[in-house]
Design a protein that fits this description.
five-stranded mixed beta barrel, flat, Asn-tRNA-ligase, 3 domains, single chain, ATP-binding, nucleotide-binding, OB fold (Dihydrolipoamide Acetyltransferase, E2P), 20% strand, 572 residues, BirA Bifunctional Protein, domain 2, EC 6.1.1.22, alpha+beta
C-alpha cells in the first residue's frame, strides 16, 4: 500500500527497500540509505544503463507539475550532489500529488529506473513505487518561488539560498577549491597549521581590527548586580573596621589575662572572620559601574586575556613560527577586517590561504604562487566542469576559457617600476584611469586589471614594490627604496595573491617596525624568530573568495561565501 504522508524520521531508515542487494549497494551512498543523483546522472550513459534497477532517492523538488488530469505528477528532484536534476514520475495512487509538487518539498521515494520516450533531454527517469518521506512546503509562504531570483534578494534569505542552483553550484566549486588547496600543499610536503582566530598582533598595521573583549558584558553584569545588591556605604565599612578593632582588643585582653588556649583560640577565630568581612566590604566598596580605567585609559588588565585582543586579520605572523621550525607550512582559515566598506569586493569576514616556506626567496615564492593558482584552475576543469558550465551559461561565458588559459599559460613577471612605466605609456596614448599613475602609488584594481586583461592578456606577477606602501615584515632590497614583495594579478579580479620574502635580519625589521610607528612590545616574539636561528623565508596570502570570483565570474563577493558578513549584516 502506498504511503501518502511522511512517516516519523526514525521510521525512515526502517522502511525496507525490496531490491537486488548487491547492485543497489554499489550505487548507495555510503552513509545514507539512498542513491545520490550525482551517482546516477554522472555516469557516461547519463544513467540509461540503470534501467530496470530499483533504487531509493531523496531530494528537494525544484519544479513539480500534475499531468493527465491529475493522474500523475512530474517532479524535478535535486539533492545538491550535482547541478543536474532527476525526473521522478509519481502516480496519484502512490501519493497525494498536491502535497509533493510544490517547489521546496523534500521527498524520499522508492522506484524503478525507466528509459524516457525518445527525444527527451534526460537519459533516465524514475517511476515511483512508494513515497517514504515528505517534508511539505506551504507554497504561499515559501520564500523561494520558481521565478528567477536575484542574488541581492537571496542575501535576505541566507538560510535558504543554498537550495538555489547558483548558490549550490558556488558551494560545490568552493568545496572543490578547498580540497584542491589541501591536495596541492600536501603534495608538496607542506604541513597544515591551525593559527589562532584571537590575536594580539596587527599583521597589516592598518588598525582596522575587531576587538575581542568581555569588558562590556562584564560592566553590564556588574551594573545589574550593584542595583540588586548595592555596595556598602563608608559608614558600613567603618563599622566593620570598628568591630575588627574591638575583636583585636578582646584577643589582647585574653592573652594578658592568661586565658585558656580554647578561649583565646575562639576569640582569634572571631577576629579572623571580622577581618575577612572587612576585606570583602572594602573590595565591594571599590566596585563602580562602567568600564574599568587606569590613568584615564581603559584598564585591559581587567579584561579576559589581561590585554587588548582582536580577531585576526591574517595568520601569517603566527604561521611563520612554524615555518622557522618545520620549513614548509600553510594556514587556511577565516580572517577579519573592520573596514566600513560596502563595495562588491569587501567582506568583514573572509578566508585566507597563507603558505610560508623556509630556505626560500622571492623567486621561490612566485614559483609556488603560480603553481598553486594553475593547479586550482586545472582542478576545477577536471573535477567541477558541470558546475563551471552552469556558471558559463548563467554568469560569465568566458569563465571556462579563463580557467583553461590560466592553467596552461606561464605567468608574466614584471617589476613594479616596469608596470608603472607601462601604465604611464598607456596614459600618454590616451588611456584614462580614475587613479593617478606615478611611481610610489599602490596599484588600484583598474591598474591591475589593465595590465592583466589589456597589456598582457594573461596572469601577471608584479614584484619589488616601494617600501612605503608595503608591510614592515617584507624584506628590504639593496636599493633601500623597494621591498621583495610580489602580487599575482589575474583577469576579472586584479590582485589575487599578495606575498613577499620576509625580512630575516633582526636590526632591519626592528627599525622597520619603529619606522611605521608600531610599538615593539607586541612583536617581541616575532623578533625572537630573527634573534634565534634566523632563516631566509617567504610566503603569500590568497584571498579565497577572490579566487571564487575569478573562477565563477560572479560579480559580488557576498555571493561566494556561505554566510557573508559586512557592515550592517551578520545573519545567523
Amino acid at each position: 500500500m502506498a504511503e501518502h504522508s511522511a512517516p516519523p524520521t526514525d521510521q525512515l531508515a526502517a522502511v525496507a527497500l525490496n531490491n537486488d542487494a548487491p547492485a543497489y549497494e554499489s550505487l548507495k551512498a555510503e552513509f545514507s540509505d539512498r542513491v545520490t543523483i550525482r551517482t546516477i546522472v554522472s555516469r557516461p550513459d547519463g544513467g540509461a544503463g540503470l534501467a530496470g534497477q530499483k533504487v531509493r532517492v531523496g531530494g528537494w523538488v525544484k519544479t513539480g507539475r500534475k499531468a493527465d488530469k491529475d493522474a500523475f505528477a512530474f517532479l524535478e528532484l535535486n539533492d545538491g550532489s550535482c547541478p543536474q536534476n532527476l525526473q521522478v514520475i509519481i502516480e496519484a495512487s502512490v501519493a497525494d500529488l498536491g502535497q509533493i509538487v510544490p517547489t521546496g518539498t523534500c521527498v524520499v521515494v522508492d522506484g524503478v529506473f525507466k528509459l524516457p520516450p525518445p527525444g527527451k533531454h534526460q537519459k533516465v527517469e524514475l517511476r515511483a513505487d512508494a513515497v517514504v518521506h515528505v517534508g511539505p512546503v506551504d507554497p504561499a509562504r515559501y520564500p523561494l518561488p520558481k521565478t528567477k531570483l536575484t542574488l541581492e534578494f537571496l542575501r535576505d534569505v541566507v538560510h535558504l539560498r543554498p537550495r538555489t542552483n547558483t548558490i549550490s553550484a558556488v558551494a560545490r566549486i568552493r568545496n572543490a577549491l578547498a580540497y584542491a588547496t589541501h591536495t596541492f600543499f600536501n603534495n608538496h610536503g607542506f604541513l597544515y597549521i591551525h593559527t589562532p582566530i584571537v590575536t594580539t598582533s596587527d599583521c597589516e598595521g592598518a588598525g582596522e581590527m575587531f576587538q575581542v573583549t568581555t569588558l562590556l558584558s562584564e560592566a553590564e553584569r556588574l551594573e545589574k548586580e550593584l542595583i540588586k545588591n548595592p555596595p556598602p556605604s563608608e559608614a558600613e565599612v567603618d563599622e566593620a573596621r570598628k568591630i575588627v578593632k574591638e575583636k583585636g582588643e578582646a584577643v589582647a585582653s585574653l592573652k594578658a589575662a592568661k586565658a585558656s588556649k580554647e578561649e583565646i583560640g575562639a576569640s582569634v577565630l572571631e577576629l579572623k572572620k571580622a577581618k575577612e568581612n572587612v576585606a570583602r566590604l572594602e573590595e565591594r566598596a571599590k566596585l563602580k559601574p562602567g568600564i574599568p580605567e587606569k590613568d584615564g585609559k581603559v584598564d585591559y588588565t581587567k579584561d579576559f586575556f589581561a590585554r587588548q585582543a582582536f580577531l585576526t586579520v591574517s595568520g601569517q605572523l603566527q604561521v611563520e613560527t612554524y615555518a622557522c621550525a618545520l620549513s614548509s607550512v600553510y594556514t587556511f582559515g577565516p580572517t577579519f577586517r573592520a573596514e566600513n566598506s560596502h563595495t562588491s569586493r569587501h567582506l568583514a569576514e573572509f578566508w585566507m590561504v597563507e603558505p610560508e616556506i623556509a630556505f626560500a626567496d622571492l623567486q621561490d615564492d612566485m614559483n609556488c604562487a603560480e603553481a598553486y593558482v594553475r593547479f586550482m584552475c586545472q582542478w576545477l576543469l577536471d573535477n567541477c566542469i558541470d558546475d563551471m558550465k552552469f556558471m558559463a551559461e548563467k554568469y560569465d561565458r568566458t569563465c571556462i576559457d579563463r580557467l583553461k588559459m590560466v592553467s596552461s599559460t606561464p605567468f608574466v613577471r614584471v617589476s613594479y617600476t616596469e608596470a608603472v612605466e607601462l601604465l604611464e605609456e598607456a596614459v600618454k596614448k590616451g588611456k584614462e584611469f580614475e587613479n593617478k599613475v606615478e611611481w610610489g602609488i599602490d596599484l588600484a584594481s583598474e591598474h591591475e586589471r589593465y595590465l592583466t586583461e589589456v597589456v598582457f592578456k594573461k596572469p601577471v606577477i608584479v614584484y619589488n614594490y616601494p617600501k612605503g606602501i608595503k608591510a614592515f615584515y617584507m624584506r628590504l632590497n639593496d636599493d633601500m627604496k623597494t621591498v621583495a614583495a610580489m602580487d599575482v594579478l589575474v583577469p576579472k579580479v586584479g590582485e589575487l595573491i599578495g606575498g613577499s620574502q620576509r625580512e630575516e635580519r633582526y636590526e632591519v625589521i626592528r627599525d622597520r617596525i619603529k619606522e611605521m610607528g608600531l610599538p615593539l612590545e607586541p612583536y617581541e616574539w616575532y623578533l625572537d624568530l630573527r634573534r634565534y636561528g634566523t632563516v631566509k623565508h617567504c610566503g603569500f596570502g590568497l584571498g579565497f573568495e577572490r579566487m571564487l570570483l575569478f573562477a565563477t565570474g560572479i560579480d559580488n563577493i557576498r555571493d561566494v561565501i556561505p554566510f557573508p558578513r559586512y557592515p550592517g549584516r551578520a545573519d545567523l
